Amino acid sequence: MKFTLREVIRHQLRPLPEVSTFAVDLTGKVVIVTGANIGLGFETAKHLASMKPAKLILACRTPETGNKAAADITQATGCSTVVCWQLDLSDPESVKAFADKFEREGGGKLDILIENAAVGLFSWKRAVTGWEQTIATNHLGTAHLALRMLPFLLKAEKPRLVIVASDVHYFVTDPNEADTDGVLQRLNDQKQKGKFYAISNRYQVSKLFNVLYARALSSHLPRGTSLTVNAVNPGLCVSSLLRDLNPVVRIPLRALSRPVARSTEVGSRVFVHAAVATELDGKTGEFLQSCKVDEPSDFVISERGASASRRLWTDTLADLSEFDDQVPVGVNRYLQ
Ligand SMILES: NC(=O)c1ccc[n+]([C@@H]2O[C@H](COP(=O)([O-])OP(=O)(O)OC[C@H]3O[C@@H](n4cnc5c(N)ncnc54)[C@H](OP(=O)(O)O)[C@@H]3O)[C@@H](O)[C@H]2O)c1
Predict the structure, then answer these.
(1) Which residues approach ligand 1 with their CB closer than 6 A?
(2) Whose CA is nearest to atom 35 of ligand 1?
(3) Which regions span the lipid bilayer (predicted)?
């Protein structure tokens, strides 16, 4: 699908259903929301807390802000089963420690995992692993956590994995580059030439990878499983996502977008809908926006897009296996 500026505005102005219209009872269910200390993740967690989950884990980079968010959610909803666990997605050791803690203390199964955490960076930074920070967090960390939590998701009754993407995936410059040999490694080379590799295009590329990865993982799920994996777009929302952008660009951009931007509460309804709405039972490998299944970009549904998705899958597993020997073990044991 082509997503023109007109389409963007049409979506932005579309009223979204109130959470009460699709809410469910989460009694007995275990839920994780990453990056839930602020923004869309916080609002998502707050909505889910009001559905009485057995355990709601806010997976946050900074325990101080995560613990405060947990306390605020408890106060706002009366839900006393909200906890914060530390997780830095850009550090594979932290992802491993999180998964190990879940194995010890999570209660065995995981019903809902919402992978919301991400960075919006427009300058070069490297994670502890040496990977560029946007790819390390938004793609590799997200992919790693999904694979590590798979054994627990597969033990739940109708589990859901929600990977937060974005409509910016429609606007990636030169998307065919995603279907070239060694694309991940090339994105990690600061000297790489070409618009696709520019740091100004990086956030968009990472969100395209979220869509491609969700489709790839969905296609590898074991036959007969009730686990579903979908990518979601909250639409343009007022949040701190662009905090690292130069204020000379950020302030006018925010002012210009404000008339159509959603609040984080409204945007979070898309995530909550993807995680609980019964009308989505059995739907997997989809792209969701405005609380509906929608078509992703023309590139994603093209032959090149399908090839890029397969390539991303293989390359991602190879790269993650360098940091975590449980990745190939889990892929062989749980996926087809
Ligand atoms: N806002 C929008 O218009 C918009 C549009 C489309 C898609 N999205 C997507 O929606 C999601 C939430 O964005 P938002 O707007 O709510 O942004 P936000 O307010 O900046 O929240 C991002 C969250 O991710 C966390 N995070 C960043 N790096 C992390 C890491 N290495 N490990 C663990 N957590 C990390 C942040 O933690 P700290 O507070 O510790 O930094 C924060 O909790 C993102 O995936 C974004 O791409 C947003």
Answers:
(1) 34-35, 37-41, 61-62, 65, 87-90, 116-119, 137, 164, 166, 233-234, 236-237, 239-241, 264
(2) 117
(3) none
Instruction: Report whether pLDDT(219) > 90.
Output: yes
For the stretch 67-120, pLDDT in tens is 999 999 999 999 999 999 999 999 999 999 999 999 999 999 999 999 999 999
The Cα–Cα gap between 95 and 290 comes to 30
Find where tokens 């662009």 sit.
242
96 is catalytic: no
pLDDT tens-place string over residues 232-282: 999 999 999 999 888 998 998 888 899 999 999 999 999 999 999 999 999
Say whether 207 is catalytic.
yes
Distances (CA, A) of 223 to 2, 66, 131, 312: 32, 37, 34, 22
Domains of the chain: 5-321 (3.40.50.720)
- In the set 203, 213, 283, 292, the catalytic residue is 203
Out of 29, 197, 207, 213, the active site residue is: 207
